TrEMBL record:
<dbReference type="InterPro" id="IPR020103">
    <property type="entry name" value="PsdUridine_synth_cat_dom_sf"/>
</dbReference>
<dbReference type="InterPro" id="IPR000748">
    <property type="entry name" value="PsdUridine_synth_RsuA/RluB/E/F"/>
</dbReference>
<dbReference type="GO" id="GO:0003723">
    <property type="term" value="F:RNA binding"/>
</dbReference>
<dbReference type="GO" id="GO:0120159">
    <property type="term" value="F:rRNA pseudouridine synthase activity"/>
</dbReference>
<dbReference type="InterPro" id="IPR050343">
    <property type="entry name" value="RsuA_PseudoU_synthase"/>
</dbReference>
<dbReference type="GO" id="GO:0005829">
    <property type="term" value="C:cytosol"/>
</dbReference>
<dbReference type="InterPro" id="IPR042092">
    <property type="entry name" value="PsdUridine_s_RsuA/RluB/E/F_cat"/>
</dbReference>
<dbReference type="InterPro" id="IPR020094">
    <property type="entry name" value="TruA/RsuA/RluB/E/F_N"/>
</dbReference>
<dbReference type="InterPro" id="IPR036986">
    <property type="entry name" value="S4_RNA-bd_sf"/>
</dbReference>
<dbReference type="Pfam" id="PF00849">
    <property type="entry name" value="PseudoU_synth_2"/>
</dbReference>
<protein>
    <recommendedName>
        <fullName>Pseudouridine synthase</fullName>
        <ecNumber>5.4.99.-</ecNumber>
    </recommendedName>
</protein>
<keyword id="KW-0694">RNA-binding</keyword>
<dbReference type="GO" id="GO:0000455">
    <property type="term" value="P:enzyme-directed rRNA pseudouridine synthesis"/>
</dbReference>
<feature type="domain" description="RNA-binding S4">
    <location>
        <begin position="3"/>
        <end position="61"/>
    </location>
</feature>
<dbReference type="Pfam" id="PF01479">
    <property type="entry name" value="S4"/>
</dbReference>
<keyword id="KW-0413">Isomerase</keyword>
<comment type="similarity">
    <text>Belongs to the pseudouridine synthase RsuA family.</text>
</comment>
Amino acid sequence: MELRIDKLLAHMGYGTRKEVKKLLKSGAVKVDGAAVHDAKTKVRPNEQAVTVWGEPVAYRPFIYLMMNKPPGVISATEDAMEETVVDLLEEEDRLFAPFPVGRLDKDTEGLLLLTNDGQLAHQLLSPKKHVPKTYFAVIDGEVTEADAASFRRGVMLDDGYETKPAELVILKSGPRSDVELTITEGKFHQVKRMFQAVGKRVVYLKRVKMGPLALDPDLAVGEYRELTDEEVEKLKQYRAGEDEKKGT
Ligand code: URA
């Protein structure tokens, strides 16, 4: 597989694409010993030797993507039958072998982080971290403050599991209600099963926040983009902050 030299170098921390362009212009970048000046030059990082100022560029950068997951695709890297979120990525991004951090149901939309940074993913998914996840949901039925109180106390799911306190904000109450629910765990079908526990049904579900990351409102359903440096930094600091709090 091939990718653009500017993208490779930007991923590797050689600066923004603009800075990388300058680096290329300066003649610092060589591919198989020959200077490369054009940012659009395609390289095969697995096969070709890329150097900057004579130093080899180790291949295997981290990649962090934010997707507005569409309904109808599964949160997996590959599947024999179903389309996966990784199938939606451009080949250039797939090259970095990102995987989804946690799962959204096939019919759930919204914020999904994909990365190849296993350590970060592991930390964000660790049940010990209690990373808050906020969902916007449309509920068939009238959601009441009594439901909010139940969720604050914890409800019993169909398998007997007692949920941790969760925050329910009722945006619109009626025969169809709009709500926002923040949970700090990630049991299978958790939001749907929590509403089931209070006799109501989720008809639309979209994740809008995960830890310090909020879904970019400019991302249409099915679109994705790289996290900004600030977002990556926030994620890493958040993780470090959580570590401190727990004294780990
Ligand atoms: N809870 C659910 O029920 N489904 C999801 O996809 C995420 C949380």
